[in-house]
Specification:
Elements: E1 8-11, E2 21-25, E3 37-40, H1 50-63, E4 69-78, H2 85-102, E5 106-111, H3 114-124, E6 130-132, H4 139-147, E7 151-154, H5 160-165, E8 171-173, H6 182-193, H7 197-212
Parallel strand pairs: 1-2, 2-3, 3-4, 4-5, 5-6, 6-7, 7-8
Helix pairs in contact: 1-2, 6-7
The structure holds zinc ion.
Length: about 220
């Protein structure tokens, strides 16, 4: 039986139909159920206590070769919440380095942190794809990320002009914390991009396959 590919690349809820979403978990919370896909990472909000952050971080390498684990994340920077930025930086860069080692894409949480993220990007020059999840920025920021080869994942709140200016081959969709149906989001984004819902599913399906299921 061929695998079910996720249409929702980032959520914190177990989907009704196994395999249709990538469920994001903390290292301690990773207890995979059959048929589901996962990402694992130490969230920037979980860097408040350096000792427990270090303990959780240390669990990650042992998890990264699990066959249901498709990505590292969510990881990144949040200048409004979480621990000291120097600790956020070391945790993020360590996890991004593991993503290179284990050849996994990175699902990134970046809140008011574009400069920090770009400085990590320059330091690491990653070969594995970086995906900004829940992107709510302006079209200029979207264009800058895409020009450098990053991917943008949009959830239920976004800047429509940014969606318009995101090339189709850089575009992903997610439900994150939302209870709204992911299909509503597909319909909304299809309309903005001048695509049918079917063609948008096909295009995002190709992006998902290339990113998370490379041959
Ligand atoms: Zn999330």
């Amino acid at each position: 039986m061929s695998p079910v590919y996720p249409i929702d690349i980032h959520t914190h809820r177990l989907p009704v139909y196994p395999g249709t979403a990538i469920v994001s978990l903390s290292p301690l919370g990773f207890h995979p159920l059959s048929g589901h896909w996962y990402s694992v990472g130490l969230h920037p909000w979980d860097t408040l206590h350096p000792d427990s952050a270090a303990e959780e971080l240390a669990l990650i390498p042992a998890l990264l070769s699990h066959p249901q684990l498709l990505a590292v994340g969510e990881v990144g920077y949040d200048t409004l919440r979480g621990g000291e930025l120097s600790l956020q930086q070391s945790c993020f860069e360590q996890q991004a380095a593991w993503a290179e080692e284990f050849r996994k894409p990175v699902v990134i949480h970046a809140v008011k942190a574009a400069e920090l993220l770009w400085s990590s990007y320059r330091r690491l020059s990653p070969q594995m794809p970086w995906i900004i999840h829940g992107f709510r920025g302006k079209p200029q920021a979207a264009e800058q990320y895409c020009r450098h080869g990053l991917y943008l994942s949009y959830g239920h709140r976004f800047n429509p002009l940014a969606v318009r200016s995101t090339p189709l081959d850089r575009l992903l969709l997610e439900s994150d914390e939302s209870e709204e149906d992911i299909h509503t989001l597909y319909a909304e984004v299809a309309r903005l991009k001048g695509e049918t819902v079917e063609s948008l599913h096909r295009i995002i399906g190709e992006n998902v396959q290339k990113l998370f299921f490379p041959a």
